[in-house]
Write a structure and sequence with these properties.
Helix 3 (203-213) packs parallel to helix 6. The chain has 4 domains: 4-18 and 175-318, 3-Layer(aba) Sandwich (Molybdenum Cofactor Biosythetic Enzyme, Chain A); 20-44 and 139-173, Molybdopterin biosynthesis moea protein, domain 2 (Alpha-Beta Complex), CATH 3.90.105; 48-135, Molybdopterin biosynthesis moea protein, domain 3 (Molybdopterin biosynthesis moeA protein, domain 3, Beta Complex); 329-396, MoeA, C-terminal, domain IV (Beta-clip). It is of the alpha+beta class. The strands form 8 sheets. A 6-stranded mixed β-sheet has the order 7-4-6-5-9-8, with no helix packed on it. The chain has a 6-stranded mixed β-sheet with strand order 16-13-17-20-19-18, with helices on both faces. 19% of the residues lie in helices and 30% in strands. The two termini are 30 Å apart. The protein is elongated. The protein has helices at 4-14, 156-164, 203-213, 228-241, 259-265, 300-318, 369-373, and strands at residues 20-24, 37-38, 48-49, 53-56, 70-78, 92-96, 108-111, 115-118, 121-124, 134-135, 146-148, 169-173, 177-182, 187-188, 199-200, 217-220, 244-248, 269-274, 282-288, 291-296, 329-333, 337-339, 345-351, 356-359, 376-380, 384-386, 391-396. A hairpin with a 2-residue loop joins strand 19 (282-288) and strand 20. Bound molecules: adenosine monophosphate and magnesium ion. Magnesium ion is lined by residues 184, 249-250, 256, 298.
């Protein structure tokens, strides 16, 4: 049986970045950059005012105070977006606003709160140092500076920065089509009635949501019956239509578990099918004709855990991520978390807004009730009790 790390390493080794596409910057959130982006311009693009006020020569107002104001001639005005064409001579000033280009000859801006306007002149009530209240061209970003590296997952900050440098489109890793299957004779579509012994199918909606968040385009396929031919046909259809196929159920050692066998009959190569972890021990990872397959266990919690630990990194890697493994949010235990078993156990936890972490309740992998209040997983090593106050990393899904 593989360790979690070994299984992740095999997945990340097998899956390669798989093509790129150009998207509008506004649509690029959550996507992975396919190439480094350097700034085509400097930011700010020109020296400009940090205040509403007056552009001055600092030497003209050197000794100014409320008692002994310096009187300056207002020779023009430059609202943000316009340029004052002239140049300041001794005793001149120009009315400016935040973001207005600094006129030639000026070397400081006096904020308007320190000025008193009088007809065509202004009384300056306070001195300014040279370059006070001036934002210099290029002080924020130099031309040619690296803005975001290839493999970065784009978020708000990157998108704002790229927009400010005039980048309209970016090249990102292509979004994988992720086929989502659910297998089991007991499963019924929501909305219909349940016969005795049946349950509503509940994995596909959640897995599709997680796949979308991981940057994939999910496609939900019909429920698959526990019959070898049906499983084969469903896998074939999904593998043909998608880049990555994610099924749940039918991967244990029961007599009705046909998924692994069906996959190999279609020509798929199974990379591994058991990982030492709880929940989620039976888990198939394989490849078939350049497509990737994950056969997740059917228990909804097991499927969730396996998705976060194995499938999300694969989808990220497929899109070219440099850091495909799930990020861990630092937290502190507010109560003990214990694993008496001999495999690492991912426990469902609720992390509060201040970082405190509690168990989300019953941890059995068929229990759904605690899922709604949980927002992440904490990995507890075998035969370990983590005490209250322990610092942990939370793999968050909300
Ligand atoms: P299996 O992995 O097929 O042995 O299923 C394990 C458990 O998960 C069984 O109780 C199934 O009924 C349940 N299960 C499997 N697939 C789903 C699904 N898509 N939605 C809800 N429950 C499921
Ligand atoms: Mg089943």
């Amino acid at each position: 049986m593989l360790t979690i790390e070994a299984a992740q390493a095999r997945i990340l080794d097998a899956v390669k970045p798989s093509g790129e596409e150009s998207v509008a910057l506004a649509d690029a959130c959550g996507r992975f950059l396919a190439a480094d982006i350097s700034s085509p311009i400097e930011l700010p693009p020109f020296d400009n005012s940090a205040m509403d006020g007056y552009a001055v020569r600092a030497s003209d107002v050197a000794g100014a105070s409320a008692e002994r104001p310096a009187a300056l001639r207002v020779i023009g005005r430059a609202p943000a977006g316009s340029v004052f064409a002239g140049e300041l001579a001794a005793g001149d000033c120009v009315r400016l606003f935040t973001g207005s280009p600094l006129p030639r000859g000026a070397d400081a801006v006096v904020m308007q709160e320190d000025c008193r306007a009088e007809a065509d002149r202004v009384l300056v009530l306070d001195a300014v140092k040279p370059w006070e209240n001036v934002r210099f061209a290029g002080e924020d970003v130099k031309r040619g500076a690296l803005l975001a590296a290839r493999g970065t997952r784009l978020g708000f900050g990157h998108i704002s920065l790229l927009a400010a440098t005039g980048v309209a489109r970016v090249s990102v890793g292509r979004a994988p089509r992720a086929g989502i299957l659910g297998t089991g004779d007991e499963l019924r579509e929501a909305g219909g009635p349940l016969a005795p012994g049946q349950i509503f199918e509940s994995n596909r909606a959640g897995l599709a949501l997680l796949a979308r968040r991981a940057g994939a385009v999910p496609e939900i396929f019909p429920i698959v019956r526990d019959e070898p031919a049906a499983v084969r046909a469903a896998l074939r259809a999904a593998l043909d239509a998608c880049d990555v196929v994610i099924s749940s159920g039918g991967v244990s050692v029961g007599e009705h578990d046909f998924v692994k066998e069906a996959f190999t009959q279609l020509g798929g190569t199974v990379g591994f099918w058991q990982v030492a972890m709880k929940p989620g021990k039976p888990l198939v990872f394989g490849q078939c004709g350049g497509k990737f397959f994950f056969g997740l266990p059917g228990n909804p919690v097991s499927a969730l855990v396996c998705f976060l630990v194995f499938v999300a990194p694969a989808l990220a890697r497929w899109q070219g991520a440099t850091e495909p493994l799930p990020p861990l949010v630092p937290g502190e235990l507010l109560e003990a978390l214990e694993n008496r078993g001999d495999r690492p156990h991912f426990l469902r936890v609720t992390q509060d807004a201040r970082g405190g972490v509690r168990s989300a309740g019953t941890q059995a992998s068929h229990v759904l009730n605690s899922l709604a209040s949980a927002n992440g997983l904490v990995r507890v090593p075998p035969r370990t009790a983590l005490p209250p106050g322990e610092r942990v990393g939370v793999m968050r899904w909300e």
